[in-house]
Amino acid sequence: MGAPAVSFLRPEFLTVGALMAMMVLAGWWAHARRRRRLAEFLGGRRAAARLSPRSDLYRFQVERLALVGGAVLAAAAAAAEPEGWDTSGPGVPERSVVLAIDVSASMQASDISPTRLDRAIQVADELIQRVGDQRVGLLLFAGTTYTLAPPTRDIATVRHFLSGVAGTVASAHDPGTLMTVAIREAAAQWSQPPQPGEVRSIVLIGDGDAGEGGEAVVEEARAAAARGMHVHVVGVGTERGSGMVMPPAPYQIEGPVLTETGSPATSRLDEALLVRIAEEGVGRYAHADDQGALDDLGDWLTPAPLLASWWLFYDLPFALISLALVALLVESLLGIRSRIRAVLGRRPIA
């Protein structure tokens, strides 16, 4: 996406600025000619160097001309009232993220203590706290999705909804884990087109024990990336896996999750699939037990301010006027320095 075009409400001041810059150039050229004539009057280059060792009367002072001319042009550009320059942010690109947490029965596996779902909630809360005042959305998914909060800066409310997520929201009779639906619904949380420079991310938190083909999920992540979103993944669980025990809850069958033959079912982390989803979604993958990878993901979601973009706190005319004043200040300091050097370079008459 290119930079926004800058237009001017009063472009006639640009013409005035160009004419003034030409006048400055003409005046400086005349000044240089007078200095040269003075040097010739004193006896030429060698004589002028002896009489004025600290100042070369033959040198054209390009740096002072550039400072004065630049100040004139900057002031003229400010007077022309530029518009269209994006100064809406303090040098930090707008970022928003939707966290999608798997709450299917497989997340009741206890290969991560106390359960995968409990660890997923902890990871989500850590990421929410890292994003600061950026927008965060929250949804749960299993065989379908449950939106708890669209992207908002009300972090306290999002954390409140997250604190209410427990093992009882899952069901042993859930139709499965449909990550394609989760990615599609997470992408639909943004109802407006992205702003210039805005970065949108989806963070899937789950075990990859899907109830659908892996290629379908990868294709959905690829489609989200094509729309300008980043699909990050946090894996929860182990490849060894474990059984699942449903907690007691009203209207829910509690106890171990069984297969059709009546033996205990085992759920395993499908890390290979989760890594592919992150790669095709132009995102990052982190395991819930890898704190370094989680920190890297958190840093990506919350970039530091750009050191060179402090001026975005102000509008463009202010920046141009400030530049003109600084240029004039530097030019005056150069003149003072020349006078000081000339005074210090004099020798008392014996």
Q: Could you characterize the architecture of this molecule?
A:
This protein is an alpha/beta fold. Mean pLDDT is 81; it is low at 87-91, 306-313 and 346-350. It is built from ten helices and twelve strands. It has two domains: 7-87 and 314-344, no CATH class; 95-301, von Willebrand factor, type A domain (Rossmann fold), CATH 3.40.50. A hairpin with a 3-residue loop joins strand 4 (135-141) and strand 5. Helices cover 43% and strands 15% of the residues.
Brief descriptors of the model:
350 residues; 2 domains; Rossmann fold; single chain; alpha/beta; 10 helices; 15% strand; disordered C terminus
CATH topology of the largest domain: Rossmann fold
| Radius of gyration computed on alpha carbons | 33 Å
Count all strands and give the number. 12
At the first level of CATH, the class of the largest domain is Alpha Beta
Q: Residue ranges: pLDDT <50 for 5 or more in a row?
A: 87-91, 306-313, 346-350
Strand-pairing-aware structural class: alpha/beta
Distance between the termini: 72 Å
Strand-residue proportion: 15-25%
Return the CATH architecture of the largest domain: 3-Layer(aba) Sandwich
Task: State the helical fraction.
Answer: 40-55%
Q: H/E series, N to C?
A: EHHHEEHEEHHEHEEEEEHEHH
- Count of runs of 4 or more consecutive helical residues: 10
Q: Please tell me the overall pLDDT.
A: 81
